[in-house]
Design brief:
By secondary structure, this protein is an alpha+beta fold. The protein contains 8 helices and 12 strands.
């Protein structure tokens, strides 16, 4: 496992109203033993905890401002805090390096500073959640201040803690984030081209969580994935709108088959490289 996750100066945090707290966190993925520390709890409905929320939003804004996808404050409250689950990892502020504080813009009055953010929201469909937001300080700081797999483990912690069985999510085809998102379970394509989104070249996915996929993120050779994929005969070009539209039409018209991507291929290929589409 990763060394930093065992540091006394780092812990998972939960930023969640009390009414939404879980009675038996971590009871669905029982094979996962990665998260043994008691999380830091912050109540976003208390005025004294607003400064911690401000730091979360500062991190999120800086992470997404280049793509113009930063989250408005009201969306954070209305769409994440009230219905959903906000979490991540935090570090004792006094232990942060000067360069980290400068690059991220840290409030040094806080005891703990959030290093990452993951938001999930329950859907109407029983047991299914949607991943609303994921970011980490790794995208903002120098190599010496990065923490390996911080984003991946932040998402894993949230999914584990909230007992998520099925996850839907949204990412962009040529984004490095797709390499992370595809390692939580079989990666089903719900949309290949999504013009209702701000960015039409958006991929909507669904995964039934499988801990074998989590392990394979760190050791693809010794943690085999047993999913029986079969090549569909379709190969798409992720940088070509017409290719994505063609797959989208087939998704809309196909009545029986479901389309998947292989996480190993996404991780090992260039982000612009053609991708094979599979059935199970």
């Amino acid at each position: 496992m990763i060394d930093w996750i065992n540091s006394d100066d780092i812990a998972p945090y939960i930023y969640m109203r009390k009414e939404n707290l879980f009675e038996m966190p971590g009871s669905y993925l029982k094979d996962c033993d990665w998260f043994k520390k008691k999380p830091i709890y912050k109540n976003p409905l208390r005025m004294d905890e607003v400064a911690f929320g401000d730091q979360i939003l500062n991190l999120e804004t800086k992470a997404f401002q280049k793509a113009s996808l930063q989250m408005p404050r009201w969306v954070f409250y209305d769409c994440a805090i009230i219905p959903g689950f906000v979490c991540g990892f935090a570090q004792k502020t006094k232990t942060l390096s000067e360069s980290f504080c400068r690059d991220v813009g840290v409030n040094t009055d806080l005891e703990w500073t959030p290093l990452s953010l993951f938001i999930i929201i329950p859907t109407i469909r029983q047991g299914e959640w949607v991943a609303h937001n994921l970011c980490s300080a790794n995208s903002l700081v120098s190599d010496k201040d990065k923490k390996y797999a911080l984003g991946f483990l932040s998402k894993a912690f949230g999914l584990w803690y909230a007992n998520v069985e099925v996850l839907c999510g949204i990412t962009q085809w040529q984004s490095p984030a797709i390499r992370l998102h595809s390692h939580y379970g079989p990666f089903e394509i719900l949309t290949a081209y999504t013009p209702i989104h701000t960015i039409a070249r958006t991929l909507t996915y669904r995964s039934r969580l499988n801990f074998n996929y989590w392990q394979s993120f760190f050791d693809s050779k010794n943690a085999p994935i047993t999913t029986n994929y079969q090549y569909s005969g379709i190969t798409i070009d992720p940088k070509n709108d017409e290719s994505l539209k063609s797959l989208q039409r087939q998704i809309e018209e196909e009545k029986k088959k479901v389309f998947y991507l292989k996480s190993h291929e996404i991780r090992t290929q260039d982000l612009d490289a053609p991708l094979k589409i599979y059935h199970i």
